[in-house]
Write a structure and sequence with these properties.
With 287 residues, the protein is mainly alpha-helical. The chain has one domain (11-277): Glycerol uptake facilitator protein, CATH 1.20.1080.10. The protein is built from 13 helices and no strands. α1 runs parallel beside α6, α5 (91-99) runs parallel beside α12 (223-245) and α7 (151-173) packs parallel to α12 (223-245).
C-alpha cells in the first residue's frame, strides 16, 4: 500500500514498528553523551575532585572538557549505533535533515522524542552515579545557561555556532573523499566551541541536551534560547546550502555512511559514490 494512502495514526505506527531500533539508538547515543558530560563535569569542576584541585586554570579545564566531549561525539558517530541511526542526537539536526527532504515526517518526530528522552535519562543516570556531587553549583547538572554577556549574546552565539556546524556537515558529508571524516570535523568543532564559546551561552547547540540538564536540575534559565537558536542556525545553513548546491547535492542524513548498517532515510549516497567513480573515466574521455 502506498504510504500516502495511510492514515496519520497508521503512518506513525508503521514508522515505529519498522524503525524503533534507530529511535532507541538515538536515545542511547544522547544518553551516553550526557553521562559523559556529567562525569567530566564532576571530575573537572567539583571542589573535592583531585583533578579540580590540581588544575586551577578555568580555561585549561574548559579545553579539557571540550576535548572530552569532542571525543564523545566522535565515538557516538563512529559507533555501531551511530553508523546505523545517523547519530543526529539533536532535534535541531533532525529537523534540518527533514527540511532537506531526507527524513519521513514520523521518523523525524520519533527521532526528536527519543533524543529528548535520552538526554533526560542520561542526566538521571548520572544523578544516580554521582549523587549530590552533580548538584553542586560548580557542576549544576552541566546545565547550559547564558554567560555574563546576557541573553542576546547567548542567542546570537548559538545561532552562529549551529550555522557553522551544519554548514561544515553538509559540505563535508556530501563530498565522497571527505564524507567518512564528517565525525572528526564535528568532534573538532565541539571541542573548539566548548573551549571558546561556552562562556557566552554554555555551548548547547541542542534543545534535547539543554532539557536533559534543565529538567532534573530545575534550571529553566533562558530555555527559549536553546529551543529556538539551534534550529534557526541550522535551518539557515541548510537554506544557504540549498541555494548554492541544490537539494540534489544532499545525499543522505547520516553523519557516517561508509558502513554496512541499514539506512532508513531517503538515501542517495550511492549516487555520490557513482559520481566519484565515473569522474576519472569522464576526464579520460575529455583528454
Amino acid at each position: 500500500m502506498n504510504e500516502r494512502t495511510l492514515t496519520i495514526p497508521t503512518r506513525a505506527i508503521d514508522a515505529l514498528w519498522r524503525h524503533w531500533p534507530e529511535y532507541l539508538m538515538e536515545a542511547f547515543g544522547l544518553g551516553v553523551f550526557m553521562v559523559s558530560a556529567c562525569s567530566v563535569g564532576v571530575v573537572l569542576e567539583h571542589p573535592s575532585s583531585p583533578v579540580r584541585q590540581m588544575i586551577q586554570d578555568a580555561t585549561l579545564r574548559r579545553v579539557l572538557f571540550g576535548a572530552a566531549m569532542g571525543a564523545t561525539a566522535i565515538i557516538n558517530i563512529y559507533s555501531p549505533w551511530g553508523k546505523r541511526s545517523g547519530s543526529h542526537l539533536n532535534p535541531a539536526t533532525t529537523l534540518t535533515f527533514w527540511r532537506l527532504g531526507k527524513l519521513e515526517t514520523w521518523d523525524a518526530v520519533f527521532y526528536s522524542l527519543s533524543q529528548f528522552a535520552g538526554g533526560v535519562a542520561g542526566v538521571l543516570i548520572s544523578q544516580i552515579m554521582f549523587g549530590g556531587l552533580i548538584a553542586h553549583p560548580n557542576v549544576n547538572y552541566v546545565a547550559t545557561t547564558p554567560g555574563p554577556s546576557g541573553d542576546v549574546v547567548a542567542f546570537a552565539a548559538e545561532v552562529l555556532i549551529t550555522f557553522i556546524l551544519i554548514s561544515v556537515v553538509l559540505r563535508v558529508s556530501n563530498v565522497e573523499r571527505l564524507a567518512r571524516y564528517t565525525g572528526l570535523f564535528v568532534g573538532a568543532l565541539v571541542m573548539t566551541y566548548i573551549s571558546i564559546e561556552a562562556p557566552l551561552s554554555g555551548m548547547s547547540m541542542n534543545p534535547a541536551r539543554t532539557l536533559g540538564s534543565a529538567a532534573p536540575a530545575g534550571v529553566w534559565t533562558a530555555l527559549w534560547i536553546y529551543f529556538t537558536a539551534p534550529p534557526i542556525g541550522m535551518l539557515l545553513a541548510a537554506e544557504v546550502y540549498l541555494r548554492l548546491k541544490g537539494e540534489h547535492r544532499v545525499f543522505c542524513a547520516k553523519l557516517h555512511h561508509h558502513n554496512t548498517k541499514r539506512c532508513i532515510f531517503r538515501c542517495n549516497f550511492g549516487e555520490l559514490l557513482n559520481d566519484t567513480a565515473s569522474a576519472p573515466s569522464q576526464e579520460r574521455q575529455l583528454t
